[in-house]
Amino acid sequence: MHIASVLIRRILNAAGLLAAVLILCFTLIHLAPGDPAEVIAGEMGGATEEMMAEIRALYGLDRPFHVQLLSYLGNVAQGDLGYSFYFNQPVTDLIVERLGATLLLVISALLLAIFLGTFLGVVAARNPNGLISHFVTVLALFGYAAPVFWTAIILLILFASVIPIFPASGGMYDITGPDDPISRALDIAHHMVLPVITLSTIYLAFYSRLARASMLDVLGSDYIRTARAKGLAEVVVVYKHALRNAVLPVVTFAGLQFAQLMSGAVLVEAVYSWPGLGTLAFESLLRRDTPTLLGILFFSSMVVIIANLLTDIAYRLIDPRIRSGAR
Amino acid sequence: MAPPLLSVRDLRVEFDTRDGIIPVIQNLSFDLHAGGTLGIVGESGCGKSMTALAVMGLVPGPMGRIAGGSIRLDGEDLVAAGEQRLRQVRGNEISMVFQEPMTSLNPVFTVGDQIGETVRLHQGLSRREAVNRAIEMLRAVGIPAPEKRVHEYPHQLSGGMRQRVMIAMALACRPRVLIADEPTTALDVTVQAQIFDLLQDLQAETGTAIILITHDMGAIAELAERVIVMYAGRKVEDGPVGEILGQPLHPYTKGLIRCVPHLEADPPVERRELMEIPGVVPGLSQLGGVGCPFSPRCSESRPDCNMMPVEKAGPGDHSVACWAVSEAAS
Ligand SMILES: Nc1ncnc2c1ncn2[C@@H]1O[C@H](COP(=O)(O)OP(=O)(O)O)[C@@H](O)[C@H]1O
Ligand SMILES: [Mg+2]
């Protein structure tokens, strides 16, 4: 099947999926206890019943549920995600401002987990009783067992306080530092280290084990024996002939787990005060800022859909059997 | 007669298992002359593939190893050679075609890449020259439209085609020895004959010596000049193909030949039914005993058989390892 036709089918699917996500979330938020008007009134320092009614009328909160839902969906279809009561900013602007920070965190963590995990897995598979192999087992145990927030706090204590090599203040960069692009980029990189490690630990553990198992399987296959019988050096046999096949499950899982990674980012951002969508989601949830919350869910869903699409394309590039629809 | 191209002497291959160190190949000796064809026969599990892998220097480690003997290619002992030297030999001077065409090609590379890789490695051809050589080889093994096929992936080819690709790959560097390990076992009967014909034609063209491992006695009769019969990791009989098929000495060889219905033009009535050798090949853990490994299944077994028979010269350059025969011959 051609990549173009896959793309078109995926975009149609995506539109339906996004609508479903929005309807579900809108309903859930509506059902949750609490009243946005009360929060707004609270911010204003208290309000009378009349003022509350006025606020409800202003934001359309007095209309029946289905009218609110339909008008929201209509606006979204026209590219309008609404206005944030709390941040006093269009939701789209608010999210775009924060999306970059989250993507930076999530994609760095994912790449670290994929590349380092695969590498560890390959080394472990080549020497199943070696040191790296045992390290992978221990790492996996630790990665599965340690909750993200715990890892985050322990790393902060260890590497920002006891051995202060990374910033403890949180955030993405030091606002008092020099603001030329290079110093800023280095500063961001410095601030990124702990959050990225925290977010990637569990995936690193998972992918190294996955790559190890997959590589062990591939190394025992007939075409690897063929590659050796050609007289190829072991490095070529492993990193050209075996790796290309062994990496397929890792790619599959990376695509499937992108959504998990996005939700994992919420916790990590909260602990490290990383100014991304997670922090924004946290704040807007506390403030009952429904448009912002829905906007974040909308964008996150979109990111996940795009990630899955990219996974599919990557898979097709790696495995010719999928490209021609033979499997 | 010229010295043999490939000479194996007293080969011993061992594996570490839960039951200790097990000899999978023992006391194996044979010669292969330049341009000649040696057949290796025996039931599954007799050590034929392991013999082939040992010659390639590819006994699966670290559990397995060549524990003794020599494998001389033109006088050079490959058992003593380093890994680097062995990599120069593999695919270049000695090549191998495997039993499983469906899984022996890498699914993620085109057949052209996989054939070209060998010549780029051993002959230093450029990428473009390698593609041309691949096309040439595909044509030589009788694949239609080679210019198109060269860019295809293994899953786009049938089993017979894939085995042809394997043969093209094995012969791309014009090796002096080709080991074909049951090259047709996984294929349809009609395709089997085509592959044997192809091997025969290519040998006539290139002068490559062939070690042909097969269950197909018809193919052995047609292609091989000499045959060795293996049982439980040992050679039990060795001789010119006509004598092995016509006057087999070892009870095991007789049994094997009796299993094939059409070898004798006019079989006596009682032989028209397909016979089989009772019992099964000893498993890994039963190797390494002191008696003749075939005696539990042998109709001619005798008290001597609890000692290992020594190899006896029979008539001509036919040899056999069996107590019953050595007595009958004297
Ligand atoms: N990787 C291995 N590890 C341990 N034993 C093996 C391995 N491969 C083959 N063997 C054993 O070696 C013996 C010979 O096997 P093989 O050479 O494959 O037989 P054949 O090719 O004649 O059918 C068998 O007993 C088999 O169990
Ligand atoms: Mg075999």
Q: What is the topological layout?
A:
The complex is a heterodimer of chains A (327) and B (330).
Chain A: H1 3-31, H2 36-43, H3 49-58, H4 65-77, E1 83-84, E2 89-90, H5 91-126, H6 131-145, H7 148-162, H8 181-219, H9 222-229, H10 234-246, H11 248-256, H12 258-272, H13 277-286, H14 290-318, H15 320-323
Chain B: E1 6-17, E2 20-32, E3 37-41, H1 48-56, E4 64-73, E5 76-77, H2 83-89, E6 94-97, H3 111-123, H4 127-140, H5 146-149, H6 159-171, E7 177-181, H7 189-206, E8 209-213, H8 217-223, E9 226-231, E10 234-240, H9 241-246, H10 251-258, E11 312-313, E12 319-320, H11 323-329
Parallel strand pairs in B: 3-8, 3-9, 6-7, 7-8
Antiparallel strand pairs in B: 1-2, 1-4, 4-5, 9-10, 10-12, 11-12
Helix pairs in contact in B: 3-4, 3-6, 4-6, 6-7
The structure holds adenosine-5'-diphosphate and magnesium ion.
Main sheet: strands, sense, barrel of chain A: 2 strands, antiparallel
Known CATH architecture of the largest domain in chain A: Orthogonal Bundle
Indicate the radius of gyration of chain A in whole angstroms.
Answer: 24 Å
The parts of chain B where pLDDT drops under 50 for at least 5 residues are none
Bound molecules: adenosine-5'-diphosphate, magnesium ion
Helix count, DSSP H or I runs of 4 or more residues of chain A: 15
Principal-axis shape of chain B equals globular
- Poorly predicted regions of chain A are none
Average of the residue pLDDT scores of chain B: 90
Distance between the termini of chain B: 28 Å
Quaternary state of this entry equals heterodimer
Tell me the number of helical segments of chain B per DSSP (H or I, 4 or more residues long): 11
Adjacency order of strands in the biggest sheet of chain A: 1-2
| Termini separation of chain A | 11 Å
Number of strands of chain B: 12
- Rg of chain B, rounded, reads 21 Å
Mean pLDDT across all amino acids of chain A: 88
Beta content of chain B:
15-25%
